[in-house]
Amino acid sequence: TTSPAPTISPPPRTTITTISYLLLVLLLLLLLNTYLSPQTLPQNTGSGWYEDLLGFFRRTDVVSVTPWLAPIVWEGTFDPVLIDNIYKPMNLTIATTVFAVGKYVSFLKDFLETAEKHFMINFRVRYYVFTDRPNEVPSVNLSGGRHLTVISIPGSNRWQEISAQRMKIIHNTIETQIRKEADYIFCLDVDSKFHFRWGAESLGRLVSVIHPGYYDTTRNNFPYERRPASKAFMSMDQGDYYYGGAVIGGLVEDVYILTKECQKRFEEDAKNSIEAAWQEESHLNRYLYYNKPSKVLSPEYLWQDFKARTKKVKVIRFSGVIKNYAAVRPNV
Questions:
Q1: Distances in Å between the alpha carbon of 113 and those of 100, 127, 149, 150, 193?
Q2: Spatial CA neighbour of 267 closest among 167, 152, 134
Q3: What residues bind UDP-N-acetyl-alpha-D-galactosamine, as annotated (predicted)?
Q4: How many C-beta atoms lie closer than 10 Å to residue 155's C-beta?
Q5: Which residues are catalytic?
Q6: Residue 293: helix, strand or coil by DSSP?
Q7: Least confident interval from 16-30, 165-179, 205-219, 220-234
Q8: How is 75-120 classified by DSSP, letter by letter?
Q9: With CB atoms counted within 10 Å of each terminal CB, which end of the chain scores lower, N or C?
Q10: Residue 306 labeled ligand binder
Q11: What pTM value is reported for the model?
Q12: pLDDT tens, 247-265?
């Protein structure tokens, strides 16, 4: 007779758990090894997400990572010293665009003065001011390595038209000038002030900001363009976050592509006599749904002065000022 084969007992459950844990640690180490070299950042990801890996779970009261694993930057989810030490050796230049058209030029002084206190300190910065009143651009003392360029553009009798032309003007200026002078770009609203550090933690391949009015609500309440005839159309089952149009950022070439596509869709709507619900912001939200940002900034980076600070928003870095729209807009 043949003796029965020996019985092989399965490994204990604790052994399987230990092996799985070790494999997970090994995977994280491989990821860190792949992305931790600062020299590869702009070419490979531009997101800087790895420096936030350990920071994701420092805050348990907010969501600090998107479903596609991009970091959502909140106070307490990053180490400013570590991030500065990673980015400063890269010798980067950050472009910053603002539109100071009509009476909005009155906001420019505060914007620039507070930027010099809080925005990308110890980095090279190039401000590009688009205005129809170049003679009213204020004189502001800039730190070393920081420059201001004034670019004249036409005025308008409708603020919606100014908003509509923003993407086109930024796109054209990137093509003719900015791509030769900067690595990253942030397109910001001039009627705002900086109040706290805005640094390298915000740099990424494609960067968006969660709108302060919709960061704590459900998707059904987002003011997307809902008309199917519009090129900005978003159905009720689409959308991740509602992004504010007052902050657009990323590598210069990625923002170049974004502005080109948004302007194209805006012009297609115009041919059909359609104006999206929130002009370029509506087109921006559609673009970012299909082209996910590599880094998302929390509402700390786009607050509104009339809103009270909440428990989740521990610091306010950049905030829109309170204003009388009837006094500064050509039409309301």
A1: 15, 12, 15, 16, 9
A2: 167
A3: 99-101, 104, 189-191
A4: 12
A5: 281
A6: coil
A7: 16-30
A8: TTSS-HHHHHHHHGGG--EEEEEEEE-GGGGGGHHHHHHHHHHHBS
A9: N
A10: no
A11: 0.82
A12: 999 999 999 999 999 999 9
